[in-house]
Amino acid sequence: MVDKRSRSKTGNKRTPKRHENFSPVQTGQVSRRVGGNKSLFSFCVWSRENYLPITPDKCSVAYFLPYLNPKHEYFFDGTAIPSTPGPVCDLGVMISNDLSYDEHIKVCSRKANSALYYLLKAIKSNKLYCTNSVYRYAFSHMFYKLL
Fold first, then answer.
1. 25 shares its domain with 50
2. 17 and 6 in contact (C-beta within 8 Å)?
C-alpha cells in the first residue's frame, strides 16, 4: 500500500515531511567510530532511513557481570554513549550489575512500609480488629507489587 500524501507530484520518491535536516548516514564515517559493533551501526542506519532521531545523551550502557564482560566505549552517530556505574532501572525494575534484584526489593519494601505507616496513621483507631483488617488488606496489595 502506498501512502499518497508522502509522494511528491514530480516523481515517485518519498519526500520527508518532518526532520528535513536529518541527512542519511555515511557508511565509512560511522563504522570507523563504532568500533566494529555492527548491530549499533545498523540501528543508526535504520534510524536515519526512517527519520527517527535518537538522542544518545538519553541512552546509557549497562555492563552486566563486569568480570566476564569487557568494558568498551560505544558510539552512536559520533556521540559517546555514557555507561552507568550503579543499578539500572528499566520498566520500573531495578537490576544491579551482578544481576541481583536486591535494590529493587529494598525500594519496593520501603514504599510499602511508608504507605502502610501513613494508612495506619490516617485511621487513628485503637480497635485491634479494624487495624488488623486494614493492615491485611493493604499488605496483600503491596506484596503483589513486590513479585
1. yes
2. yes
Structural domain range at position 128: 93-146
Q: Does the model's pTM come out above 0.70?
A: no
If asked whether residues 29 and 69 sit together in one domain, one would say: yes
Q: Does one domain contain both 97 and 119?
A: yes
Task: Tell me the three state secondary structure of residue 40.
Answer: helix
Contacts of 95 (CB under 8 A, 6+ apart): 62, 64, 87, 88, 101, 104
Query: Tens of pLDDT along 59-88?
Result: 777 777 766 767 777 777 777 777 777 787
64 and 100: one domain? no
Q: Which mean pLDDT values do the consecutive 10-residue runs of the chain (147 residues) have?
A: 49 49 41 54 84 80 72 76 78 79 83 79 74 75 62
Q: How far apart are CA 110 and CA 116, in angstroms?
A: 10
Q: How many Cβ atoms from other residues are within 10 Å of residue 48's Cβ?
A: 19
Domain count, the chain: 2
DSSP-derived secondary structure for 82-109: PBPSS-EEETTEEE-TTS--HHHHHHHH
